[in-house]
Design brief:
The complex is a heterodimer of chains A (225) and B (80). Chain A has one domain: P-loop containing nucleotide triphosphate hydrolases (Rossmann fold, 3-Layer(aba) Sandwich). Chain A contains 8 helices and 7 strands; from the N terminus they run αβαβαβαββααβαβα. Chain A has a 7-stranded parallel sheet with strand order 3-2-4-1-5-6-7, sandwiched between helices. Chain A is globular. Chain B has a 4-stranded antiparallel sheet with strand order 2-3-1-4, covered by helices on one side. The chains are: A alpha/beta (225), B alpha+beta (80).
């Protein structure tokens, strides 16, 4: 009789994610897990964010991609510390991958760490990497049917950035239906309409990041006293 | 959820089917939306004509009693 040995992959991941979380809490760093399909505009959103907030908030970025350092190269141009993780075909980042590169960052002097996950609407949502919040970027060109087709990522995310709204006139994307579906799946979620290309709607995104970063810092300062 | 690539083959989601009496045209959307808004509920499909209601959910995040409570709140009679 063959006995199949199953490993609790998610349980092991959650344990390491918790270790990451303890470290982030100790240093008062707000950690965002940035999710979305390939081409949704995650890196473009990060570029705008770096340009707008790098002189105000001490930030760093971890880039997750199957191959290449193309995204990290784009972020590095803004003078923000960036680390590239190549998963070599893996469809998501896990907590161990993140833990292994944390020593390369100056965590003591960091307020905000954004981890851009591998472009994928399914698997990355399942793996906690120690983040405080998940954010999902959905572009107009992907279609308004995606929230109901991929509910987990919207259920798990604290905020959804609907990107490329400048292309609305050229698509059949139904904004009202999409927003209704998203808030049905996750009634408390924040929904932002932005265009990274035209630089519209981004102020609300920056404010959300500012408030979350400040709240995390305050929480950790309270813990010290 | 992701069983195709095997990275999370031990999905903790489960599918449950109810037969619900008392659906009215105007309550179906509301019940569907309310169920979908529960933390561990990922998909809800209601056949209003015969009351067949299928729900994909994670029992670790939402208790069955929370689901049945939604039916009760809308005056519906649900059996598994």
């Amino acid at each position: 009789m063959e006995i199949q040995v199953m490993e609790d992959i998610l349980g092991k991941n959650d344990q390491i994610a918790m270790e990451n979380q303890v470290l982030f809490k100790k240093e008062g760093i707000f950690v965002l897990n940035l999710l979305g399909s390939p081409g949704s505009g995650k890196t473009s959103l990060l570029e705008k964010t770096m340009a707008a907030l790098k002189d105000e908030i001490h930030m760093a970025v971890i880039e997750g991609d199957l191959f290449t350092s193309k995204d990290a190269d784009r972020i590095a141009q803004y003078g923000v510390p960036v680390i590239q993780i190549n998963t070599s075909g893996g469809c998501h980042l896990d907590a161990l991958m993140v833990q292994k590169v944390l020593q390369k960052l100056d965590l003591v002097n960091l307020d905000l760490l954004i981890i851009e996950n591998v472009g994928n609407l399914v698997c990355p949502a399942e793996f906690n990497i120690g983040e405080d919040s998940k954010a999902v970027v959905l572009s107009i060109t992907e279609g308004d049917d995606k929230p109901l087709k991929y509910p987990l990522i919207f259920k798990e995310s604290a905020i959804v950035v609907l990107n490329k709204v400048d292309l609305l006139p050229y698509t059949n994307f139904d904004m009202a239906a999409a927003q209704n579906d998203i808030t049905s799946i996750h009634p408390q979620i924040n929904v932002l309409e932005v265009s990274c290309q035209k630089e519209t709607g981004l102020l609300a995104w920056y404010d959300w990041l500012r408030s979350k970063t400040a709240a995390k810092k305050a929480l950790c300062t309270e813990g010290e006293t | 959820m992701c069983k195709e690539c095997g990275c999370s083959a031990q999905s903790s989601n489960t599918k449950i089917q109810f037969f619900v009496k008392g659906y009215k045209e105007d309550t179906v959307d509301e019940v569907e939306r309310t169920l979908l808004g529960l933390p561990g509920v990922y998909h809800v499909h209601i056949h209003a004509h015969d009351g067949e209601t299928t729900i994909d959910y994670n029992p670790a995040k939402t208790r069955l009693s929370e689901i049945t409570a939604i039916f009760s709140e809308h005056g519906l009679d649900a059996v598994i």
